[in-house]
C-alpha cells in the first residue's frame, strides 16, 4: 500500500468513526452529511471525495454494531448437533441482535445502497477487521461476511440436504420464507406496528421459522431453536 492509499484509508476511517459517534450520541436517524462534516472538522464536499452517498457512510458505521453478533454467533452455533440445528441457532442469534438494534440492521441489510452492496462489505472487512475471522470456522465466516441474507444461511441448509434432513427443493423454499419473515418483523418493529421488545420479536420470529423448517424436514423429530 503506497502513501496515497494509506492516507485515503485513514480519511475513510476518520469519517466512518465520526459517523459512529453521531449514531451513539443522536441515533442513526439523525445522521446527515452536515453532521458528519461538523463532527470530523471537514466540509461536506471533502466527504464526497471518499463516499458516493451518505447511505454508504451509514452502512460502514452500522457494521461496527455487528461485533456483538459476531462475538456471540460461535457460542450459538456450537449448541447445534447437526446442520439444521445450526441453521436455526444462527437465525436465533441474528434475530436477537437485529431486533435489539433494528435501525442499524436495516441500514446494513435492507437500505438502498446502490448496485453492488456486497463490494462495500468486502471493502469494510479489508480495512477494519481483516484478522477478526482467524479463529472462526468457514460456516461462521460466511454468516458474517456474506451480504446477501439468502446466501448467508444457505450453506447450513445445503449441508442439511447432505445429512438427509431436507430435500434440495425444500432448501429454496425455507431460505426465501425465512428471509421474508425476518424482514417483515424488522420493518414492523421500526414502524412501531407492533409493540414487541427484542426478546418477544425473536421468539415470535423463531416460532415461524421453526414451523417452516419442521414442515419440510424429513426427520421424524421436530426441531426447536431452544437448546
From TrEMBL:
This is TetR/AcrR family transcriptional regulator. Residues 32-51 bind DNA. InterPro entries: Homeodomain-like_sf, HTH_TetR. It comes from the Bacteria. The lineage of its organism: Bacteria, Bacillati, Bacillota, Bacilli, Bacillales. Gene3D superfamilies: Tetracycline Repressor, domain 2. Keywords: DNA-binding. Residues 9-69 form the HTH tetR-type domain.
